[in-house]
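Per reviewer request, we include the raw input and output of the structure prediction for the construct analysed in the revised manuscript.
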Amino acid sequence: MARDIRYSLTNNPYVSQLLLRGSKDGFAPRTFWNICNRYNNIGIAKVEGTNEIIGGFNPLAWNKTKERWVKTNKSFIFSFKGGNIQNSILSEVKNETYTLHDYGPTFGEYEFMMRSDVSDFTQDKKNRCYRSKDGFAPRTFWNICNRYNNIGIAKVEGTNEIIGGFNPLAWNKTKERWVKTNKSFIFSFKGGNIQNSILSEVKNETYTLHDYGPTFGEYEFMMRSDVSDFTQDKKNRCYSYDRFSIIDYEVFKVVKKIFLRFKLTVIFLSLY
């Protein structure tokens, strides 16, 4: 088992050498790759409009020519706000298969990615950092929620609306077929007021649930993404909207309460 070695500021055997600073060298992705390619390094970025610093450590070396997933258990990403390191968040590797990718650069399964389609990291808001606990990749949903009956809840971006659905059976990504049941439902409410809720029950059992998405009804509510992130490409659907992104979602496994019934036998002992 690997040892957990932590160094103080006074006994750290490593030295950090500045390779690139955006305000000095520019914010084009090409600049990153020209300077940082083939180096293991720590990247640090300040989020626009906030006091948050985020970053990541690649213990190997970026290689733009390959653009592939790289495995390691020594990478990490971090975040802290207000210049106070006591408020920092450190996230270590959970799944080595998706630790680093040479597109972006990318840490984790898009947990932290720097990207731009206009050759400037500061302009088109294509950078990503997951605020959700488990992430927004469809693969994450299927890894955790596959084969469970559950309730899914999502908050629609740019609104105060919560939407969701209940699957009384179990999702099964391996089949991707329509499933019949009359016990499923979808719901919506706004402004945190459950009195304004809308509950929609099954009308056509033939198209109740589908294991693509996941999908409730005949696309009455579907979560989908073509870029492995439910928050990004507005592929989610609900008949209240055209297409939309979400800012967070939660899934709850539904289990029956277990009540134990038993007989109580009371024995009185007489003490002499």
